[in-house]
Amino acid sequence: MKVTVSIDVPSIEAGLKFFGEAFGFSEASRPHPGYALLSAGEATIGLVAKPAGSHPAKGSDDVRRYERHWTPVHIDFRVEDFEATLAKALGAGAKTEQVHRVAGYPPVAFCSDPFGHGFCIVGLQPFIMETE
């Protein structure tokens, strides 16, 4: 089984720009004009172009919005170089909401992408306090 997480974005191009600059994803295929598969290493994500204000399901009163919003599901990007990845994500348009650097534990940054979706950047190595 292979699992792909798909992310609603206002446009494929905007999603490609952010996820490419922040995490090194590139377009692997576009099986539909409004859907692109991106890959980086062994990771694959899908981008689904859905305009702001559109309904997520038939009969739903809710609408898609791309300002910061809460959802019970988010992606964790587990990375070798936490600080460099966080800097790239911020440079690409992400926002940092909290950063935890606790000695002996991997660092974690709670962030949101330019489309309002929450995600985390998690280091693979424990954080080490620098001594003076």
TrEMBL record:
Residues 1-124 form the VOC domain. It comes from the Bacteria. Signal peptide: none annotated. InterPro entries: Glyas_Bleomycin-R_OHBP_Dase (IPR029068), Glyoxalase_6 (IPR041581), VOC_core (IPR037523). PROSITE patterns: VOC. This is VOC family protein. It comes from Massilia aerilata.
